[in-house]
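INTERNAL AUDIT FORM
Audit reference: QA-55
Scope: verify that the stored structure record matches its stored sequence.
Auditor: D.O.
Record contents follow.
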Amino acid sequence: MVRLRTASALVIAVAVVVAWSAAPATQQFGSITFPTSGAPAAQEAFLTGVKALHNFQFDEAAVAFVQAEKADASFAMAYWGEAMSHNHPLWAQQDVPKAKAALEKLGATHEARLAKAKLPKEKAFLEAQNVLYFGAGDKLARDVAYSTALQKMYERWPDDHEVATFYALSLLGSVRPGDAGFRRQALAASIAERIFAANPKHPGAAHFVIHAFDDPDHAPLALDAANAYAKIAPSAAHALHMPSHIYVQRGMWPQVAASNVDAYKAAVDLNSTMKLAEGREDFHTLGWLAYANLMMGKADEAKKNVDNAKAAADRNPANRGIRDGWLGMRARYIQETARWEKLDLPAADAPAAGAEHANMPGMNMGGGGGGVSEGAASWIYIVGVSAAKLGDRATADAALARLRGIRERAEAGGNAYAAKPHAIREKELAAIIQVAQGQRDQAVALAKEAVDIEKTMAAPSGPPDPIKPAFELYGELLAEAGRHGEAAAAFEQALLRTPNRTPSVKGLAAAQTKARTSDAARQ
């Protein structure tokens, strides 16, 4: 989230609150029921804040809860809500100092805050939140403890939709990349689906069904929620975007594009209204829109998306996250269009994205380790690929060395799973260099090593990262080597991970045709 540390920044923040408060109350964030002890004057703003939380509109949530605090200074749940706006469960992000500052406005100690909560359920929410922000251990340990506290609340109040919704979200928030099994996602989905059936306009219910089933195997189960969610909360940029998570998993490219056209406009409008930094939800949706256009063969439209990203990078020269996001989009465009060109490696590996663009859901801006964002790593990869395609072995080797260093640093960081995308990029680039040198057998072997790594990873939640799926590259290299039957099998595996992805669909069709021709010739 955007950090506000100075007095001048505080003035800006207050101005945003005033401007937002003066605007007509036109936010359509869905419908919930959440009885509390707050004064009637605080109820509308409080409910807006909770719905904004469910829609991951965290900036708007914070403003709404501050309004509720002003309407009823003794309303404990208003301060609870403001603190919750600084926790982003599914992105493993949390601004503890800001959350604590919000709570300390209510009371200097946990006991003092509890004393101001007038209802048992309100006290229980504050108890659970205390674990989240003041508990022992790292973020994951606190997330697990918080989920356990909410489980107890859910067992005590099983019919309370808000208790159930926050518990379902906490289950999803305890999942980390590389975790085995589907039990927590299944439980979260079962809870969210029950709420969705009882209240088809509940934003959190539809939203968290989508997140729970955000993979190729389970995505069909979330199609109804995906089709409904944007209509439930049409004022929320994130709600307009989220259906495309399921559409991507189903390979529904026109729907992916339409979803993100609307989401991008809403995100840009929100940035303007609330004076928010660029490179957050707007960049996220723009990247997905560009990918959908590429899958539909609309290269010119995708180029416009990339150019929009570059314009944002030019407007924000000090924001490395925006720069890396643009580079990642440009790298994907070059990969999908095969419009190879002479490119330059960056002067030095860029550190992962910082606080000013941390609210970029699904962009994987942290790059999974190695101190380099996903966008920067993709750019280094595509510089190497383009160089290899154009016969510039020196630049290709330099890019390969950079990728190797990134992978080694990620592995040294102790997160083996986070190093895997870097290892795949390294193997893929090495394979492409070998192809350029006429060493097809070595290239196929390296691509197979990339496949073996990819098989140990979960399917992507959105556009693939790395930008070239390993199974797809393996299929292409097998086809080039005349091994069409094996190529077809590789493309089939690729399509299980990235359904209806256009290069794999085309590769499969060509490989199957040539395999049949080869079989007929042999017979």
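Auditor finding: record pair retrieved intact. DSSP finds 25 helices and two strands in the chain.
Action required: none
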